[in-house]
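Researcher: Good morning. I'm working through a list of sequences from a screen, and I'd like to move beyond sequence-only analysis. For each chain I'm collecting a predicted structure so we can compare shapes side by side. This is the next one on the list. No need for commentary yet; just the structure.
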Amino acid sequence: MPTKHAAQLLAAVIIAGLGLTACSQTTSDTTDAKESSPSAAVSTPAAGDSAKPTPSATPSIVVDGKQKPADLPADLPLPQGELTSVTGTTGTYVLTYTTPDTASALAAYTTALKSAGYEVDGSPVGVQAVKANVNVMVTKTPAALQVALVAE
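Model: Good morning. Structure tokens for this chain:
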């Protein structure tokens, strides 16, 4: 199971993702609210744009993206539903999937993680999973699953 440090890191990623998602929803017409510090490269693909983040000297930061990050672990299953938000940076992301039945989606995702070889510890509202250097925390809201992951 995730170490205390990894669990704290995942919790911080989830909180940051929720905060950034909330901020981006209230400022849909401005790009300033979506930008990070000047020293970081920011990738915010336009609707329908399939461009991937551009590599830079500093890690790229994705805020309110809608594309699956290219650096996700190849064997990481993803939940059912529509990917509506991606926030994070290289190896550390929060992905939000909307689905009409989050309870069923969480159960199916838990099964998929186990089938992929992840060690899973779950509850009715969330799941923690670990495989090698990948820590995943999934939380369920009434309309969405949020997948926070750290790949070290």
